[in-house]
UniProtKB/TrEMBL annotation:
Gene name of the encoded protein: murE
Motif Meso-diaminopimelate recognition motif, chain ranges: 403-406
The organism of origin for this protein: Alishewanella tabrizica
Protein residues bound to meso-2,6-diaminopimelate: 379, 403-406, 454, 458
Official protein name in the record: UDP-N-acetylmuramoyl-L-alanyl-D-glutamate--2,6-diaminopimelate ligase
All residue ranges annotated as the Mur ligase central domain in the record: 104-307
Family indicated by similarity: Belongs to the MurCDEF family. MurE subfamily.
Length: 485
């Protein structure tokens, strides 16, 4: 555990009490003895309402930007928001100075690309860690997080832990929410990666333009040194054309034609549980073989390869190492039964992700392609009918079921999805997710593939405000074992 004196604060605000401090916390519920509680205003409530609670939990110091307090442990810094990024970095000993930081943004593929970067870097002898949806730490041993991109106060603590354990490279997901909320303020990325932009989170951003502008904030000189951009994506192409930092483009050969030093691919082809393609860079050609399903994973692998190449690693070694890449937990994970039926657990929860996964699986499917999915409650409602339409077009049979309904009526979410499908279409509504998967399995025949989409690695299902234990990967394995016994 880190122990810090107050000298960093003294340099900024003058005399401060001489005590040893433990951690910086922005959530009073996480404060323990010797921590510093930083009271911040928010969208739902205000940290200032919890100052007393933080003190009672043992906070040695409270920082706020407003109010008057008799308690000497509460310091009012009117410029707190402005000072905070530097304060947090100093408190934890400026860990970023010892790390190569890579930020990955985009609607889909962030967790995959960050994991691939860490996996490739490890193979090349660079100790690496990730921060994102599945947690933080070594890519195969992650500690869970509340947010895909934590606040910089928490990130600085995590980075200090990484430095202490000898990590040199950190690949982190940077969500659009985090960019808008300045959760990465004060961080500088040696490389920033853009995967793609498609519909999601319009409940938060309001429009695709605002969503694109949020992501673009990562690709400016104050935030990143260089940009690795998917130019086969329309938004990526536009970013690459106007970017103020050096661009390392990747994508399909035809889309890369007008860019120099692009890492391009063509002839992506599925072969059993692998995907092969030809990759070119500056007149050199390589055969890329991946033990991963889907053309989108070729793009994810190229993003990771291009990023590490831009940071100085040799291309032939990276291409070779890519053959050993492992998928992220809950992404295109296959379970094949003796009956010849395959179930694939995937985290597709956007229209484009659902489309890409169904297209990828169709190429491997000898018989019927079945799809079991739902949409999260209290989130972007506009994507529901779009996902219904895509599933109906690309799968042979669909079972609509609950994802995380949260505080919405589960059945009405399914009806919103069905609104994008033909009323007499080949689909069934079954809100109970366990039952829906079982139904799909009972109906399936040899050569069928069942895509179970949306929950991937998650280990809970949120119904109302209660998180019920539900691990889809474990459930599918259990079902498979039962069917085989
Ligand atoms: C809508 C939203 O994004 N909210 C984020 C935001 O919360 P906020 O500023 O509104 O906080 P608030 O709840 O009003 O509370 C204000 C302050 O009081 C503090 N507080 C609150 C209650 C209490 O008892 N004690 C206390 O100290 C809070 O810690 C906070 O500092 O800032 C918090 C700290 O950074 C985030 O944890 C929180 O994420 C919430 C949990 C969330 O669900 N966010 C989602 C939408 C999100 O950010 N998702 C993206 C991934 C999207 C993707 O996959 O593409 C992510 O990066 O996770
Ligand atoms: N490059 C891609 N293009 C389109 N879809 C993708 C791509 N990569 C992954 N997917 C799909 O998106 C799902 C989520 O992938 P991943 O977890 O890597 O993305 P993410 O951006 O981290 O998602 P989140 O926003 O939830 O953190 C996968 O399960 C797959 O269905
Ligand atoms: N990072 C995604 C997770 C969604 C996963 C899905 N299971 C859901 O609950 O909608 C989001 O914040 O939208
Ligand atoms: Mg993610």
């Amino acid at each position: 555990m880190l122990v810090n004196s107050l000298h960093w604060l003294g340099q900024i605000v003058g005399d401060v009490p001489s005590v040893l401090l433990n951690h910086l916390r922005i959530d009073s519920r996480l404060v323990s003895q010797g921590d510093v509680f930083i009271a911040l205003p928010g969208s739902k409530t205000d940290g200032n309402l919890y100052i007393q609670q933080a003190l009672e939990s043992g906070a040695a110091l409270v920082l706020t930007s407003t109010g008057t307090f008799a308690d000497k442990r509460v310091l009012v810094l009117p410029r707190l928001a402005e000072l905070l990024p530097e304060l947090a970095a100093s408190f934890y000993g400026k860990p970023q100075q010892h790390l190569l930081l890579v930020g990955v943004t985009g609607t889909n593929g962030k967790s995959s690309v960050t994991s691939f970067i860490a996996q490739l870097a490890e193979q090349l002898g660079v100790k690496s860690a990730v921060v994102g949806t599945l947690g933080y730490g070594a890519w195969q041993h992650l500690t869970p997080l509340n947010n895909t991109t934590p606040h910089f106060i928490d990130l600085q603590r995590i980075f200090a832990e990484f430095v202490a354990s000898g990590v040199r490279l950190v690949a982190m997901e940077v969500s659009s929410h985090a960019l808008v909320q300045q959760r990465v303020a004060g961080l500088h990325f040696a490389a920033a990666v853009f995967t793609n932009l498609s519909r999601d989170h319009l409940d938060y951003h309001g429009s695709m333009q605002a969503y694109a502008e949020a992501k673009a904030q990562l690709f400016v000189p104050e935030q990143s040194t260089l940009a690795v951009i998917n130019v086969s994506d329309d938004t990526g192409y536009a970013y690459a054309k106007s970017c103020q930092v050096p661009v390392y483009p990747y994508g399909l050969t035809e889309d890369c034609a007008q860019f120099t030093h692009a890492l391009s691919y063509q002839d992506s082809a599925p072969k059993q549980a692998t995907t092969h393609c030809q990759v070119s860079y500056d007149g050199q050609s390589f055969a890329l073989q991946l033990g991963l399903l889907g053309e989108f994973n070729v793009q994810n692998a190229l993003a990771a390869i291009s990023c590490l190449h831009a940071l100085g690693q040799p291309l032939p070694l990276l291409i070779q190492a890519a053959a050993s890449l492992k998928p992220v937990a809950g992404r295109m994970e296959q379970y094949t039964l003796k009956t010849g039926v395959t179930i694939v657990v995937d985290y597709a929860h956007t229209p484009d992700a659902l489309k890409q996964t169904l297209l990828a699986l169709r190429a491997h499917c000898a018989n019927h392609l079945r799809c079991v999915f739902g949409c999260g409650g209290d989130r972007d409602k506009g994507k529901r009918p779009l996902m219904g339409q895509i599933a109906e077009q690309l799968a042979d049979h669909v079972i609509l079921t609950s994802d995380n309904p949260r505080t919405e009526d589960p059945l009405s979410i399914l009806q919103d999805i069905a609104a994008g499908m033909h009323p007499q279409g080949n689909y069934t509504l079954e809100p109970d997710r366990r039952l829906a998967i079982k139904l799909a399995l009972i109906e399936a025949q040899s050569g069928d593939i069942i895509l179970v989409a949306g929950k991937g690695h998650e280990t809970e299902q949120i119904i109302g405000t209660t998180a019920h234990v539900y691990d889809e990967r474990a459930y599918v394995q259990q079902l498979v074992a039962e069917m085989e016994s």
